[in-house]
Amino acid sequence: MSPMLHVALYQPDIPANMGAVARICACFGLSLHVIEPAGFPWNHAALRRAGMDYLDHVEIVRHDGWRPFLECMGNHRIVLATTRGAVAHHAFSFAPGDILLFGRESVGVPDEVHARADARIRIPLRPGLRSLNVAVSTGIMAAEALRQLSAFPAESP
């Protein structure tokens, strides 16, 4: 069964954040795409610690770069989470098959990636505050998208 939504991390810097995102994807039934290069080795202990035993419950697809990622994902709509987004996440209309794309913790995404996104959305923050952790942002956006699509996984008893 194909996931309702996809999450993609563009060249993640922090293994613990990627592990936490993998855990979110496992719990919500989303696939995780990692656009390389990552800023850490894949066997990093922090990735395993943050992902815990959830890593066995998520489909993680590694891509050798931005172009191979685009080729693999075909015509799925790319929804970039960015502090430069014009639309708030709760005002955006998500669709089945959307890719929720998150940039590097240190620098976001390059202009080429920003320009290629089909939509650029943001999480509204109090004035003077810059951004949220990438894993927190993933959870917020994924939950809103799944809520809109009435696609939360069935609850465990």
The residue-averaged pLDDT reads 90
| Largest sheet entry | 7 strands, parallel
Please give the count of helices.
5
Helix content: 25-40%
Order of helices and strands: EHEHEHEEEHEH
Q: Return Rg in Å.
A: 15 Å
Distance between the termini: 22 Å
The coarse overall form would be globular
* CATH secondary-structure class: Alpha Beta
Structural class: alpha/beta
Low-confidence stretches: none
Instruction: Tell me which CATH architecture applies here.
Output: 3-Layer(aba) Sandwich
Q: Give the amount of beta strand, in percent.
A: 15-25%
Number of strands: 7
| The number of domains | 1
What is the CATH superfamily label?
SPOUT methyltransferase, trefoil knot domain
Q: What is CATH's topology name?
A: Alpha/beta knot
How do the strands line up in the largest sheet? 3-2-1-6-4-7-5
